């Protein structure tokens, strides 16, 4: 097996360096919704987002305590690991009054020494100083904290097309504000969005390279049922990337990414029953192996073209 670490900085190895041991994420659906789904911005969500997103329905039916207990048990048994990050993942995890946010975050991490950090996934238009004041209290308590902001593309026309409901300026502002609080910043991007070319992918990578981003999650565009993207696919408005094309674009994206940025995802997962295309994404190890091979063939690595 190729040594992946020499090609890109994986989040798992970054966590191992940071904590001196293996640390695993525990994904939590804390019952939030999203302003781009509940009618505040839009009622139908981003064009690629299904009503349940990529969230594991089985976990969502459990209480937060049950979700945590079930995953801890599984991780301990499978990986013999005992330290965790609380990953508030489903929907927009800062979309509530500060008092409610505190109650939810506390309910998971307060008094539980198994947790060494928190990751909060959200939209860049759902953060402000009051929320950051709260979130930074967890760093003061010794937890490592990241906020992950969805961007998907740095092209304004793409953000409009996929109906994100925000532009790049609000993303830049959120990243800079969060970084100023000493909180880690993560971001999500999608490769293969409609009408995007190789140049657009490079543009997004360069845009992020100019910002204090600590971790990146790269997703292939998964076309899933019950989304606008599925309608566009059926009408020929969007076509899935082949695995080879995707692997090349991931490498080109990471060549422009700073070497110290941790890569927390290379391939998006969707439920087999709702995924239309690309079906190759169902075999994640094979897709990651293709990306690593592509790095090797190009004699390349993360940060090679970083300005
Ligand atoms: S912001 Fe996230 S949760 Fe909300 S509609 Fe878009 S992808 Fe779905």
Q: What share of the residues lie within helices?
A: 25-40%
Class per helix and strand makeup:
alpha/beta
| Largest sheet report | 7 strands, parallel
**Main CATH class:** Alpha Beta
| Corresponding CATH architecture | Alpha-Beta Barrel
Shape: globular
Mean pLDDT, to the nearest integer, reads 94
| CATH fold topology | TIM Barrel
Number of helices: 11
Terminal-residue CA separation = 30 Å
**Integer tally of domains:** 1
Q: What ligands can be seen in this structure?
A: iron/sulfur cluster
Using DSSP, what is the number of strands?
9
Describe the model.
The protein has a 7-stranded parallel beta sheet, sandwiched between helices. The protein has 307 residues and is of the alpha/beta class. It has 11 helices and 9 strands. Helix 8 (198-209) packs parallel to helix 10 and helix 10 (243-255) crosses helix 11 (284-297). It has one domain (4-297): Aldolase class I (TIM Barrel), CATH 3.20.20. Helices cover 38% and strands 17% of the residues. The longest helix is centred in the first third of the chain and has 16 residues, at 64-79. It is globular.
Topology at a glance:
Layout: H1 11-19, E1 23-28, H2 57-60, H3 64-79, E2 83-88, H4 98-109, E3 115-122, H5 129-140, E4 144-152, H6 156-161, H7 168-180, E5 184-191, H8 198-209, E6 215-220, E7 223-224, H9 228-234, H10 243-255, E8 262-265, E9 275-277, H11 284-297
Parallel strand pairs: 1-2, 2-3, 3-4, 4-5, 5-6, 6-8
Antiparallel strand pairs: 7-9
List the keywords:
307 residues; alpha/beta; TIM Barrel; two-stranded antiparallel sheet; 11 helices; 17% strand; globular; binds iron/sulfur cluster
């Amino acid at each position: 097996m190729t040594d992946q670490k020499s090609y890109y900085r994986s989040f798992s190895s970054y966590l191992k360096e940071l904590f001196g041991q293996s640390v695993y994420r525990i994904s939590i659906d804390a019952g939030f919704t999203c302003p781009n789904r509940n009618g505040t911005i839009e009622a139908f969500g981003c064009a690629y987002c299904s009503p349940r997103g990529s969230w594991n329905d089985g976990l969502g039916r459990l209480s937060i305590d049950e979700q945590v207990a079930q995953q801890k048990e599984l991780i301990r048994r499978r990986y013999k690991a005992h330290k965790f990050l609380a990953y508030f993942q489903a929907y927009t995890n800062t979309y509530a009054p500060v008092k409610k946010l505190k109650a939810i975050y506390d309910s998971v991490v307060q008094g539980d020494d198994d947790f060494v950090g928190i990751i909060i996934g959200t939209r860049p238009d759902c953060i402000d100083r009051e929320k950051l004041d709260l979130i930074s209290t967890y760093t003061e308590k010794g937890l490592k904290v990241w906020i992950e902001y969805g961007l998907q593309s740095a092209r304004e026309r793409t953000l409009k097309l996929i109906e994100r409901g925000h532009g790049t300026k609000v993303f830049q502002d959120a990243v800079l504000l969060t970084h100023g609080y000493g909180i880690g910043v993560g971001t999500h991007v999608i490769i293969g969005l409609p009408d995007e070319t190789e140049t657009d992918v490079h543009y997004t990578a360069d845009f992020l390279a100019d910002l204090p981003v600590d971790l990146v999650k790269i997703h292939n565009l998964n076309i899933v049922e019950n989304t606008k993207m599925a309608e566009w696919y059926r009408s020929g408005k969007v076509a899935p990337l082949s695995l080879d094309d995707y692997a090349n674009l991931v490498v080109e994206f990471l060549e422009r990414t700073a070497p110290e940025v941790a890569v927390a995802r290379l391939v998006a997962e969707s439920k087999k029953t709702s995924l239309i295309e690309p079906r190759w994404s169902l075999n994640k190890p094979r897709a990651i192996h293709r990306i690593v091979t592509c790095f090797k063939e190009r004699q390349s690595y993360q940060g090679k073209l970083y300005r």
